[in-house]
Inverse folding.
């Protein structure tokens, strides 16, 4: 059963100083949606590293983006970027960092803190990490954009705050809709191709047949755009319901 059919979760969104602002995980991560016509999206992300939802939490999974170059710039605090197993420590003086397509990577605040499923109460060294995150435009319908991040944040809240079981088909469905795929261990041959195939076949095709949506109306600001994306896949067209009003 698709996990969206259990406990409902509402993503905390409001407009502050003219910018859409998303507060995830009880305010542990605050994302301001900026306006940059040269990028598919542009976010200012603030992580409160002493927040109990982030303290001592495990690092996020390694992943890669297949259709877009991603850009990262640390504005405050210390941010870690793991690229292909090499950890880079980013500070405000380092400027913008480019993450090319198909590069395995993950980001997390200094000290190994990132989103996790188990909250703890240990304090951290840096109180706030703030950074800019953006990506280039892509002609592909499934790419990194606001809809992807909204649905990924909201689904994680269902797991972290709502106690729902983590469903890998739902994860793969959302990731695939963002042109993003989980990284397999380095010793697996053709790991990028295998990861993409798994994301498309299991997340998009099988997931669509079983009722897993990559986007949900109550989590998505631009539902019209999300419908257009889902209409490009025969297995997801039935989710494109513009009259739906949950």
């Amino acid at each position: 059963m698709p996990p969206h059919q259990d406990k409902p979760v509402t993503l905390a969104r409001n407009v502050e100083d003219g910018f859409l602002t998303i507060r995830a995980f009880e305010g542990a991560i605050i994302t301001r949606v900026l306006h940059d016509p040269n990028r598919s999206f542009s976010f200012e992300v603030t992580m409160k590293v002493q927040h109990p939802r982030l303290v001592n939490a495990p690092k996020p999974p390694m992943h890669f983006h297949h259709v877009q170059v991603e850009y990262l710039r640390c504005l405050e605090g210390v941010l870690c970027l793991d690229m292909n197993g090499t950890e880079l420590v980013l500070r405000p003086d380092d400027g913008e960092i480019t993450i090319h397509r198909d590069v395995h990577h993950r980001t997390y605040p200094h000290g190994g803190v990132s989103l996790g499923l188990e909250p703890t109460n240990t304090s951290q060294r840096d109180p706030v990490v703030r950074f800019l995150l953006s990506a280039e435009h892509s002609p592909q319908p499934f790419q990194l954009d606001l809809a992807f991040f909204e649905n990924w944040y909201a689904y994680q809240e269902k797991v972290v705050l709502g106690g729902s079981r983590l469903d890998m088909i739902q994860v793969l469905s959302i990731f695939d809709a963002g042109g993003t795929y989980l990284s397999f261990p380095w010793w697996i041959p053709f790991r990028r191709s295998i990861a993409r195939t798994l994301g498309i076949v299991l997340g998009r095709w099988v997931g669509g047949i079983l009722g897993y949506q990559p986007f949900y109306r109550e989590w998505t600001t631009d539902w019209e755009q999300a419908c257009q994306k889902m209409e490009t896949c025969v297995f997801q067209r039935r989710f494109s319901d513009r009259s739906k009003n949950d």
Observations:
- The chain has four helices and twelve strands.
- The first strand starts at residue 12 and ends at 16.
- Residues 191-210 form the longest helix (20 residues).
- The chain has one domain: 3-239.
